[in-house]
Amino acid sequence: MVASLRKAARKAGMPEHQVKHLRYHDFRHLAGTEMGSVGDVPTVAYLLGHQHVTTTAKYVHASRSRAAIVL
Fold it and tell me: Per-residue pLDDT tens for 8-54?
């Protein structure tokens, strides 16, 4: 599975030095981060299967655009 993800990353133009270190978890982290930019932490925690929102908080990053949505 990782080989197909790396192949897709190469096709998308990702530099080879980054492709070599690409892991399946990186895509999961990206998905969590993207969900966190549009959803609330408890919902993202549920979708990712986390039992504790503190785990999910690692995926959710503050940004101006997110702050504007919340306000």
Answer: 989 999 999 999 998 888 888 888 888 887 778 898 899 989 999 88
Q: With 0.70 as the threshold, say if the pTM is over it.
A: no
Sequence-separated contacts (24+) of 31-39 with Cβ below 8 Å? 32/56, 32/59, 32/60, 33/59, 33/60, 33/61, 35/59, 36/60, 36/61, 37/61, 37/63, 37/65, 37/66, 38/69
Angle between helix 24-38 and 41-48 (nearest 10): 150
Element at 12 (helix H, strand E): none
